[in-house]
Amino acid sequence: MEHSTASRRSFLTLAGLAPLAVWGLTACGTSGPGGNSGGAGSASIWSLTGAPGETIRTATVDAFNKSNPDNQIKLTLFQNDAFKTKIKTAIGAGEAPTMIYGWGGGGLKTYVEAGQVVDLTPWLEENPQVKDRLFPSAFGAATVDGKIYALPNETVAPIIFFYNKELFAKAGAQPPKTWDELMALTKTFNDLGIAPISLAGQSRWTSMMWLEFVFDRVGGPELFNNIFAGKDNAWSDPSALEALTKIQELVAANGFIKGFSSITADSNADQALLYTGKAAMMLHGAWTYGSMKNDGGDFVPNGNLGWFDFPTVDGGKGDLKNTVGNPGQYMSISAKASAEEQTTAKKYFAEGLLTPAEVTSWIESGAVPIVTGIEDQLAATDAKEFLTYVYTTAKDAPNFQQSWDQALSPTAAEALLNNIDQLFIKSITPEQFASNMNATLGQ
After folding, report:
1. Gene3D superfamilies recorded for this chain (predicted)?
2. Residue at 200 is within a domain
3. Which of 8, 83, 177, 183 could join 78 in a cystine, given CB atoms 3.0 to 4.6 angstroms apart?
4. Residue 157: which of 362, 315, 441 has the closest Cα?
5. What is the count of structural domains for the chain?
6. How wide is the angle at C-alpha 417 spanned by C-alphas 415 and 422, nearest 5°?
7. Number of neighbours of residue 308 by Cβ within 10 angstroms
8. Do strands 400-402 and 323-326 pair parallel, antiparallel, or not at all (unpaired)?
9. 418 and 276 together in one domain
């Protein structure tokens, strides 16, 4: 995953708030490598700097320590990029903190295969209340070979299909419910001189979101699950080739704004195209709601921003309620930790994470925490309609596909982004894309 976009894709921001970075090295905690210096019942966490996560996590740990004098936790904070390097080195050297913060998916799978993290499945079965209060959809990226190796925590950020209500009214159009309707809208808006879809194609992961959804709608969750599992020739499954073909058909129909391959997401230019009326639709992360509210003048306050579920594909296997994006953040327990340290970590997992105070803090920051039963709290916010949609989408998703560049290994993810770039500018065919990606299976 690209670090500059990882932070942008991890949290929702609202107007007036600083962008919510993944708490990403300026070590500003109290513990050194491994972090344990406080007695038999102590444990350690490495986490990330950056508001609001740094403030929220520090307050959560402090509250736990105050209530548990015999089970103390040492918190050390690092900047995002440095953390990712340091945690790999520490784990490899057998000096990992007790609790390993991460993003699940491919990184977690690597830890599991090396025997570096604890299987939490038996403990969760003995403590069902811990799992039952969290979104079921968040556990997919925490699961390897049917066993759970990380506890989901923090917040959720699905990918949302946004649209400009004013432009749709001008065109006399309704949000598309099927892929065929979406294709028809490309002609409708092009005839009006309006770009159908905004896309920051130079950033590559923005194009990846399209593939994630189309793969699901055509082939269902099994299609990517086979890829994740390294099944031979999984990328050239007939459903995959159909999805790849549909993407190029959308490109050929001028579905995306002219010059999309030179537009970057970091500049928020893709969002500006939507709220200034240059483009009618945009597929993007839930976090963009906040920046559009902040930067788009009256666009959001006046109710001109709308959203809808990604369309179905005729004959496709994917459920309309399936979604993609970031189903949560994740915390594992080091297999090298002592029994006492593991006991403290599990106590923290059960009693310290996503407490009512922490949940309130996340909501006040403009994010949707991955706990059930917060409808009333979300309904009390200024962004209640949107936050409730995000909450319902994530909570009720039969399948929440983690972003592919997080789910896959770093090697496969980079190859994926390079090939997606070529697919969208039509310099390779769907068959060539599939062949190139089949070569990365198992890497």
Report:
1. Periplasmic binding protein-like II
2. yes
3. 83
4. 362
5. 2
6. 95
7. 15
8. parallel
9. yes
Per-residue pLDDT tens listing for the chain (443 residues): 333 333 344 333 333 332 232 322 233 333 333 433 344 568 999 999 987 889 999 999 999 999 999 999 999 999 988 898 899 899 999 999 999 999 999 999 999 999 999 999 999 999 999 999 999 999 999 999 999 999 999 999 999 999 999 999 999 999 999 999 999 999 999 999 999 999 999 999 999 999 999 999 999 999 999 999 999 999 999 999 999 999 999 999 999 999 999 999 988 999 999 999 999 999 999 999 988 998 999 999 999 999 999 999 999 999 999 999 999 999 999 999 999 999 999 999 999 999 999 999 999 888 999 999 999 999 999 999 999 999 999 999 999 999 999 999 888 999 999 999 999 999 999 999 999 999 999 88
Helices (H), 352-409: 356-364, 375-379, 384-396, 404-407
Q: Write the CATH number for 303.
A: 3.40.190.10
What is the rounded CA–CA span in Å between residue 320 and residue 137?
A: 15
Residues β-bridged to residue 45:
75, 99
Cα–Cα distance between 81 and 84 in angstroms, integer? 5
For 6, other C-beta atoms within 10 Å of its C-beta total 21
* Whole-angstrom distance, CA of residue 378 vs CA of residue 363: 7
